[in-house]
Amino acid sequence: MGASQLLAPFLLTWVCIHTFLFLLQRFLNRPNLPTGPGNGPDYELLPTSTASAVSVGNVSPINSLSKSIVSSSSNSALLVKPFHVRFSTTGLNSFFFRLGNAPSLTRFWRIWYGMGIVFAMLAMVAGWVLLMYAAIKLILLATSFLWTIWSVESPSSFTVRASEPDPGKYHSDTGATSGGLSYHLRKRDFNDGSGSLSDAPSQSSAAVSNSGENGMVFVPVIPGLTLPLSHLPYYLIALLVSGIVHEAGHAVAAAREKTQVSSAGIFLYILYPGAFVDISSRALAIMSPLQQLRVICAGVWHNAVLFVIAWIFLSSGALQLSFRLIGWKQMDDGLSVVDIAPESPLYNVLKPGSVITRVDDTLLKGNPLDVWSDVLLPSQASPSLHSQPSKLVSGFCVPNTLLFVKPSDCCLFAPDMQFGHSKDRSLSCFTPIDPLHPPNPISSQGTNDRVLAKNGQCLPSFEILADPNRARCTPQEPTCGEGSSCYRPFVAYEPISIIRLYLIAQSSVGASTSTGITESVSGLSGLVPAEQIVLYQGDPKDIWETVQVTAMRSRWLFLPLWLPNAILLTIQYTMSFSLALSVLNIVPARHLDGHHALKAFVALAYSLWQTYRFSQSMRSTIAECSTDSGHAAAIGLSNSSTTGLPKGSKIVKGIVASTTVLLGWVMIGSLIQMAATIL
User: Fold this and answer.
1) Where is the signal peptide (predicted)?
2) 348 with 340: CB under 8 angstroms?
3) Model's pTM, two decimal places?
4) DSSP code of 43?
5) How many separate domains does the chain show?
């Protein structure tokens, strides 16, 4: 999906939001809604506490006047600007205060937010180490990339490449003609992410694996590129939930320290939803360092607890048990199709509710979601059956009467003709299995070479691959019965392959014939009525992205198929954001909670050191007083031990500045690396 196609739904969404708010204002007969208490939060990269909640300073007279006017007339306010909506209310103030000061919870909150301080300090160190690791890895990758470019441009590199011709490939200087079987290919577009991933655990593991392959520690989240557009609602909900939990931690901790919350609310800025609490900066300034740490560290502590709760909920099977009690059942021998992206060639073939039981020769059993991802994403799991011809476990016994019948133009490939030059849609290229001469590696998509499959035959792919009764053969035993030969499909360019999907489809899919086999107009095929075999020629990853599947199936028709997967995705994204907030938001960088936590921690350490020095001086005073000497000197020592602010503020500023630069380098470097990987 291109940028223009992404812009249209974005603008339409905001037009609907502004239209709804305009009609709501007219309905309530309030043409000018108040702008709310204060100037609102400073919008940051992560949904942290507001600037006023963590900064020390005086509130301006204009801001104070706005607060007093709004508080006397209304306890809620709505701010509407282009691509920016913010709702704030004072209705939750008393709730936060009662919760933070409940007599029965006094001891609990003290221990609870004390644990939050310990966690935040550990997370600060872990986050900083993680940033350093990511930065070093980016530097090493950049160095390796520059070295590779220098090596390729050197004359010796060209000599080595020229001395290693690739046998089995047909090289030609003539240009490839247009046309052919391009309709078979669903060309990958890196801006196209509208399809759905199969499941949240699989996508999480895939993202980690993919980032590991590319050397990326942090993967930027860009809708339509690294995030499927169909996941955007779950993504935004998870981001909002993580932000609300984060800000609730600040609010309750502040209330526990007898600091009133001025207002709380939520906002939507472009595509970034979040929450905020407005806490008096004066009240924070007069707190002790320990009290400040309780308030500042409460947000990341709540996010960490939310992550642990969600992880336990998923890993313990409580979510699956809840689905079963409501009316869904767990599938152990297949996956149910939830939705198919409209741009996919499978859109008119697969139907929601169909059950996919096998991919090629791999049964979807045990943990079908993991098997589904392993088969369709071979580069991120164990080698799959369909990655290239040499990895195919078995071939097909083809009658000799089908050989040397059709022209072999479908076995001549070019980068712009990746399915061969044949105009017959039903034909695909097959090559014989020869255990003594394994097939050559597939060419990459970036090559400009034309490829001619050695001893290739153009055979009817549907008749051979979709026949469940056809005899099979292997490289170890390539012999077939009399009058047959062992052949398997050949594809010239990665990651294109021919994939067989076995599914139990709805009765509306396909129509029975005398042979029980049906072929669709798009080149996809089916076997009805009991089982359907769908042939897909293209990138396996496109199936993984555009076909949304789930291991849950509803017992009753009125239960939506998409609901379990939607809940699972939302929980998975919530875990991801909560973990990111609990670690990255506490690093000592500007505009993050870690900046203020570091200052409070240094002030606390300095205060403890001063207290220790004072206690030492008092002991010395008592000792000297016991001998009736040195009283005046002891008093002078006692007074000199209680100085004001710590003298390590320059060190704190240096740490914050260096961490901010480090964080910026990692973010920019990750974006550049992702762009380089795509290009």
Assistant:
1) none
2) no
3) 0.70
4) P
5) 2
